[in-house]
Design goal:
CATH superfamily: Amino acid/polyamine transporter I
Helix content: over 70%
Structural class: mainly alpha
Shape: globular
Number of helices: 15
Distance between the termini: 38 Å
Number of strands: 2
Strand content: under 5%
CATH class: Mainly Alpha
């Protein structure tokens, strides 16, 4: 087996949580406020509920072949060549999300924190830390996430507590001001960031030791991550207002700048930055891991680690040239990412699930006929 590490259901749940929060914590509020205005929080809540349908489908796929990654399941159900073709599409999607993650890191730091530093330098530094994580393996990545989880939760709690005095309930009015259509459009646009991307975690599920508990952990991590995103969207609307939120590239970062307690505790936006750095690191590292493992399985290699450095030399240039600027990236997230994600992470898995169920029924029917004959 290419990966000999094992993780428990609790560690998997934490990875799902960090993966869900990841890039979405900075982009989702502005995206939803632009489309759904003051009803963005309703769109965020609806998206969390709909995301459970995706997890339901992914868990059913896991049940078919619990010890196989998604790349292996493709070949098992669709056959060698058609399965490899489906895996190429899937791995290109992971590659795309991974590169986009590093690009997001570079754009955030060079526009908000270290404005005179070239974005390439920031991306290279993060890429190097991901390379270390991927080389050490899945167990190390997940157990590191367990260590950082209390700090993430503590910082989240402090941020939300500090924001309570700044709440303006009138910013939520009028509820359903423009009807249900903007809410539906908002929820649709958020499906691709992050909920459909959870499909990438099917490269990790075979290594969870408690298979039955893994399914519950998948739901739990998604719901908790979704609730955190919902709270961020809600606070952005309550504190900043829908119009101001929609005009910011990173409204959650602006939330931190608004905090002022007794002229002593001010501008604690570093809290948002730290939360985001922790969660995005685990997201892009898991994507990087899934990409190299999937490529190794696609090409029949004995060790995925030999692909780590070559993959880095593809990810870095692609992340630099994939979008010309932040505005283009936000426009891509709003209009293109969801249909792209639906194709790879919803329609293809459903097709795979249907074919897999039919094949298993036929196989069991043949066995029963053979035994009765």
């Amino acid at each position: 087996m290419l990966e000999e590490g094992k993780i428990n259901a609790g560690e998997f749940s934490i990875i799902v949580f960090t993966f869900t929060v990841g890039t979405a914590v900075l982009h989702a509020p502005a995206l939803l406020a632009t489309i759904a205005k003051q009803d963005a929080w309703l769109a965020a809540a609806l998206t969390v509920l709909i995301s459970l349908l995706f997890i339901f489908i992914y868990n059913h796929l896991i049940s078919l072949y619990p010890s196989m990654t998604y790349v292996e399941v493709n070949e098992k159900i669709l056959g060698k060549w058609l399965g490899k073709l489906a895996s190429v599409l899937y791995l290109f999607y992971i590659f795309h999300i991974t590169a986009g993650g590093y690009r997001g890191i570079g754009d955030f730091f060079t526009t908000q924190v270290m404005v005179e530093t070239p974005s390439q330098v920031i991306m290279i530094l993060f890429l190097l830390t991901s390379i270390i994580g991927v080389r050490l393996g899945l167990e190390v990545i997940c157990r590191t996430a367990v260590i950082f989880l209390p700090w993430i939760l503590l910082l989240l709690s402090l941020l939300f507590i500090f924001l309570i005095p700044l709440i303006k309930l009138e910013n939520l009015q009028p509820i359903f001001g423009e009807g249900i259509k903007p809410i539906i459009n908002g929820f649709y646009s958020q499906l691709g960031l992050p909920y459909l991307q959870l499909h990438i975690l099917l490269m990790v599920t075979p290594f969870v030791t408690e298979k039955a508990e893994a399914k519950k952990a998948f739901y739990l991590g998604t719901v908790i991550g979704g609730i955190i995103l919902f709270i961020f969207v809600l606070f952005c609307i309550l504190v900043l207002g829908a119009d101001f939120t929609s005009r910011q590239a990173y409204p959650t970062y602006v939330l931190g700048k608004k905090i002022s307690i007794g002229n002593f505790l001010e501008r604690v936006e570093v809290i948002v930055a730290i939360i985001w750095i922790f969660t995005i690191y685990f997201k892009v590292t898991i994507c990087y891991y899934g990409l190299t493992l999937g490529l190794a399985q696609l090409f029949g290699l004995k060790d995925y680690k030999i692909l780590i450095f070559p993959s880095a030399f593809l990810i870095l240039p692609f992340s630099i040239f994939m979008t010309p600027n932040v505005v283009h990236l936000n426009n891509y997230i709003a209009k293109t990412l969801t249909p792209f994600s639906l194709t790879i992470c919803f329609f293809l898995p459903i097709l795979l699930l249907i074919i897999g169920k039919i094949r298993m029924k036929r196989a069991s029917a043949k066995v029963s006929n053979h035994s009765s004959g």
